[in-house]
Design brief:
nine-stranded mixed β-sheet, globular, alpha+beta, 9 helices, about 375 residues, single chain, Alpha-Beta Plaits, four-stranded antiparallel β-sheet
Amino acid sequence: MKVTLSVIKADVGGLAGHSRVHPDLKNEARLVLENARDEGKIIDFYVTAVGDDLQLIITHNKGEGSPEIHKMAWDAFIKATEVAKKLKLYGAGQDLLKDSFSGNLKGMGPGVAEMEFEERKSEPVAIFMMDKTEPGAFNLPIYKIFADPFNTAGLVIDPNMHHGFDFEIWDVIGKKAVTLHSPDEIYDILALIGSKGRYVIKRVYPGKENKHLPHEPVAVVSTDKLQEIAGKYVGKDDPVAIVRAQAGLPAMGEVLEPFAYPHLVSGWMRGSHNGPIMPVSEKDATPSRFDGPPRVIGLGFQLSEGRLVGPADLLGDVAFDNARRLALEITDYIRRMGPFEPHRLPDEEMEYTTLNEVRNKLSNRFRDL
Ligand code: F6R
Ligand code: MG
Ligand code: MG
């Protein structure tokens, strides 16, 4: 059976600044999706939040980019926004950039990661959701999961994974895409995705020589560039990703392994700082210190004819305690740099800046050298 898994998210209001989502907003979204499930329009759903982002996880059989599913998500965000406005939550409706829905969520503000695939005999999936960062924050973990044999033992010792994987990489500034194969093109892959503000991994597929799995996506990342869409600052993208696991794909433990290392990502306070991404449980997905540090949660589900069995709160496990500790240590360390790079982002990547104003103000006091 072909199933579509859609993860659709938007920041429609924060409780006490940009920290978390009020439970009433989640309830409002649940009502919309419950209705849709009762009417047989979707198979199943799960509503959660990470930081100030409301997350809708939906299964259905309408394929990717379905106007019906996107409209439903839009309606859920609109309903949640109405409540957010009543409660005067912070930034109520901030990610809904258009006044009315027009066929597809593309360019409308919410972030979307979705894929259609043949549900296997058993289908474990992990859904990762980040707050206070950008889509390129997924480059390092997705690369490690599908291309790094020091992370994923199966790349070396599982005959079904030995052929490697294809990486679809988007140049979000040049608006182009390229597909490169791992392992033979890993130097080229890394040359691109190390520039994580520009080149982002969009999808991963089994390599063409893989006879074990159909050529369907095994991972997908949301890449909606809010800044470009709105033409002004409206918050970092706060990306989500879906990764399928096991039986010829990286094992769930291999999928989680990269998150034991809290790598540096850009975002955090005012979308203008580098900081560690801290893996946390669903209940600890509540940025606080300096509006962060940036967080990631990982929810595991088993699909059963499209039904979402779970979730398992994967990154909440004690095995990630050291990563949390390290992330907090890095936080203490890097915060002491205050307004200096590389804690503060370089000029062209900052979401907030006064640099032009300062330059203009001082223009007649600058002397030639
Ligand atoms: C980061 C983020 C927050 C805000 C910050 C200032 O993505 O959303 O760090 O940028 O709280 O917000 P304003 O300017 O709305 O007071
Ligand atoms: Mg926000
Ligand atoms: Mg957010």
